[in-house]
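Comment thread on ticket #2218

A.B. wrote:
> Attaching the input chain for the structure job we discussed in standup.
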Amino acid sequence: MKKFKSKNVLGRLSAAALSLSLLSAATSCGKPQQQQGNNTSSKPGRIMVIGKADPTKETFWEDVGKGVTDAGTELNCKVDYKCAEDDSDIETQRKYVQEAIEKSYDAIVIAPNSRDEINDLFMDAVDKGIKVLTIDSMSDYEGISCAINSSDSAAGTMAGTEAARLLKSQVGKIAGVGKIAIIGSTSSTAEVRIGAFKTAFSLLALNDVKNPSYAQQQAAAQEENGEEEELIDPSEAAQKAAQEAKARGEDPDKAARAAAAEAAKKLEEASAKKAAAAAEAQSEAQTEEEKVSDAQALAEINNSYYIEADRCVTYMEAYNAAKKLLEDENNGIKVMYGTSTNTTQGICQAVEEAGLEDDVIVVGFNTSPALIDKLKSNILDATIVQNPYNIGYFSISYAKTLIEGDKVPSTLDTGVTLANAENIDDPYIQILLYPDKEIELPEVKNPNESAGGGNSAGGPPDGVTTGGAPEGVTTGGAPEGAADSENAASNGGNQ
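C.D. wrote:
> Ran it. Output below, let me know if you need it in another format.
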């Protein structure tokens, strides 16, 4: 086993993705004047980064800060990282933006707690030549240079798909077995996470009612479209490429970056192809009358399956909301879904106190020491993990590039991963959870020594979901309406 600092691995993956993004920008927006990357000879630049919530209370914003700090050091930028009290605190964010304008910072990076209540200051900043980038959540202001975050639509779809899979595994079916309780945060991004969750879950419930062997149709569609390319997860690809490059006397870091980027790209393309093939197979098999009937059935599911509590900011608010829902015997709750760290923690506490951990499936967002404990004790069944370190790191990389007069893509999706009790200790997940922790990555066998080695099935380690639906379960392609929601939120995400 070789040991690596998590942030070093993340930094390599960041550098690979950054190179690809800058190449895209050069292709679509004009060639950059000079290569940026780790160039530390250019002017430092002053960047104000404004987070959503207190990093001493929210692990997500602590990890964003680590990425910001590391990038500032490596890229020779003067960075100030400040945060609001929580995701409803707009006034503190306005104060920090005003401070950045008055002190003539070169760039402002912000996770806005409102889509429109800070826009007047953004306009003032841009008018004064200050670059404005958003991270994690979005603003409606059209002058934003770049939005860096994870896709709430993809994350919500992943959560809904996993909730359906867990429910079917537990009781043998998805539809008609109980209610799905949802507790969302006050962040605007909760809307997309909830909408995508409902769409994915409802489609699976409908498919379960219509045809319990729907997974067989998906498998047949994949077979008809040819055998899938063997895949490898990015961390394994990076390790293997580095070893082979070193043996050839070449730069192992360069080889690792290139291999990781290529592996990640293939995983994403394979997931998209799989979903599209299944959706096409389903659509072609339906008559127009059946499609109308399906739409009516989906409407009925949406009206009768879901219970939504009032939006919550704090853990205690979410706990009280979850406790109230669970105490009502008429609710018959089988699944609970939280859209943030605090809502997930509140749900877990209420479920545990009620002694319902074996009866109620809990799916949530993000990780914290408390949530990791809930995962390992099977109170939290699954959680959607973002990549806060890379969100912070990329924000400084892109801000520096813009300060120096070069172009960057208008958006960057940093991805989401499904974590559960089975994979929480896997290196692939640990790298995301602990940017500063020394992680042991398994040695990859030299292909000249053995024909095997690594993950023989290809793709990520067992239990890791990189996108799309789990094997054997489909959302029927991109959920209806997901594209509109995605555009409305511009791939926004929040802690």
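A.B. wrote:
> Thanks. Noting for the ticket: The chain has a mean pLDDT of 78.
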